[in-house]
Design a protein that fits this description.
Radius of gyration: 20 Å
Distance between the termini: 19 Å
Order of helices and strands: HEEEHHEEHHEHHEEEHEHHEEHHEEH
Number of helices: 13
Number of strands: 14
Largest sheet: 3 strands, antiparallel
Helix content: 40-55%
Strand content: 5-15%
Shape: globular
Structural class: mainly alpha
Length: about 400
């Protein structure tokens, strides 16, 4: 199938309307914590508060979202004020005495849990950077750049964040180069940093060299330090939606670099490999986990449908289509879009359910918890609406790199 210019414009309007009149109103203003700052995001189907603890990841993500809407959609004071509440809470309560960030804190900011990986810091980078652009706050800009440097240090210093005993079977995951690539992209596109391009190049090279396996048409979730496949249960486990998120980060970089054909080909290849492995041909939707060799997966939720992989696949397929004009991607986009908005979307209460059984029925009703909040869904709707602002239908690939199934 193909999308006409009218189809694309209707999609733009749809995503913009969902973002501003459905997704965002579910969260704000009721999630703003007027007493302690930050956001109260652990909510049930109707918005009822389930827990007043705060996940540090999602505090940063929500501050990024509000700042980004201010920067790119409309400079609403309520969005800027809401973003400041999150930034202030992060900087006041979410850093330990050693400079590392917590993962989970109480409503008033007392620490509950800290993890050895540094994803809290990456979300603090993009939140501070987006807020600095919105507000002109130089302290926030300095904080973003400083934390980006710390993330690089954590990623490149062996053993720095490891516990006293580490596994005798060392691995590395695709998550680190993915999240640092996107963090650098966000930093570059808001306040700028001269380090970003070189690190983005490095992380793309690492993903392509170590995780993309052309011989078996797959993107691995984790590998041995030398890039080889670890033939044990954890080493064989794939997360198709996560790999496809990495694919659209690379396609986004291709777009930034004037539609770089090499990066378009790489991103589309990753999307193709993991669509074939991840799409449930019987019930629709994206499987959460698969085994690289088709063996049983350890996690019992392997065949469930989680919300966020569908957000990432919606972005990736639409971005692939707008960059290439390949009708296959329009067809895939329509499949995943229609599945997601007919199964995850809560028409009565707004926003999306997070977790479905394989057959598409709702597994539980929570809209927010330690991992789900206002990020993947509103980012998808915002990104797709922005992407389609200047897209024209029939002239889609005029002057662009045309990609077909035969040259992937």
């Amino acid at each position: 199938m193909t999308y006409t210019e009218t189809d694309l414009d209707n999609l733009r309007k749809f995503y913009n309307n969902q973002l501003l009149n459905d997704t965002l109103p579910f969260w704000f203003p009721r999630s703003l914590d007027a007493q302690h700052g930050g956001y109260l995001l652990m909510r049930d189907q109707d918005g009822t508060l389930l827990d007043d603890d705060k996940a540090v990841w999602i505090q940063g993500r929500a501050a990024w979202l509000l700042s980004t809407l201010y920067n790119t959609v409309e400079p609403k004071q309520e969005w800027l004020d809401g973003a400041k509440s999150g930034i202030d809470f992060l900087n006041k309560h979410c850093f330990d005495t050693d400079g590392r960030m917590f993962f989970h804190v109480t409503r008033d900011g007392r620490p509950i849990r800290k993890r050895r990986y540094f994803f809290s810091e990456t979300f603090a980078v993009i939140a501070n950077a987006a807020y600095a652009k919105a507000s002109g706050d130089e302290a926030a800009a300095e904080k973003a750049r400083y934390l980006f440097g710390k993330c690089i240090e954590y990623a490149t210093t062996p053993g720095l964040l490891e516990p006293k005993f580490t596994s005798t079977r060392p691995t590395k995951g695709i998550g680190v180069p993915m999240i640092l690539m996107n963090t650098a992209q966000q930093l570059r596109e808001t306040i700028g940093d001269p380090r970003c391009d070189a690190w983005i190049d490095l992380y793309i090279q690492e993903i392509e060299t170590d995780f993309v396996k052309d011989d078996i048409a797959c993107v691995m979730e984790q590998v041995a330090p030398d890039g080889s496949i670890i033939d044990h249960i954890d080493g064989r486990t794939l997360n198709p939606g996560h790999a496809i998120e990495g694919a659209w980060f690379i396609l986004h970089e291709a777009k930034h670099r004037n539609n770089d054909p090499y990066l378009i080909k790489l991103g589309c290849k990753m999307l193709d490999y993991m669509w074939e492995r991840g799409w449930d041909k019987e019930h629709g939707g994206i499987y959460y986990f698969k085994d690289v060799y088709g063996k049983p997966v350890q996690e019992y939720w392997h065949d469930m449908k989680f919300w966020w992989p569908h957000n990432e696949v919606i972005i990736a397929t639409l971005l692939a289509y707008t960059l290439t004009g390949n009708e296959k991607y329009a067809g895939w986009h329509k499949l995943v879009h229609d599945y997601a908005y007919s199964h995850f979307h809560d028409r009565e209460n707004k926003e999306w359910f997070g977790y479905l059984h394989r057959d598409g029925t709702v597994a539980q009703t929570a809209k927010g918890n330690l991992f789900k909040g206002p990020f993947h869904l509103p980012r998808q709707e915002w990104y797709c609406a922005q992407l389609l602002k200047n897209t024209t239908g029939n002239n889609l690939v005029s002057g662009l790199y045309e990609i077909t199934d035969n040259n992937i």
